[in-house]
Amino acid sequence: MFQGCQRTVYAYADRNQTTGVATWTEPIAVDNHDINVVVQKETSSSLSPGDRLSAGSYKIVYKAVDAAGNKAQSCETEVVLKGMKVDRENESCYHFLW
To answer: What is the SS3 assignment for 92?
Structure first.
């Protein structure tokens, strides 16, 4: 079973840029019998917290298996990086572009 499975994480691009750093806490797998549970991301989910991403939506799937081969229900996290543009006339006003 996963603890701390975040369904959606929002991050924002750097000011007037199309990329930004996305951070999130990766889930932890716990088991009522084994203390050693292996958590892996699907091979298509190579993203990690702290990565610089382009504006868009990214799906990360975490899977866990214990020493006996029991598999937990997967944890799916969507990381959404939104781009924003600063209004030149009012620097405190942001417009989300994506």
So the answer is: coil
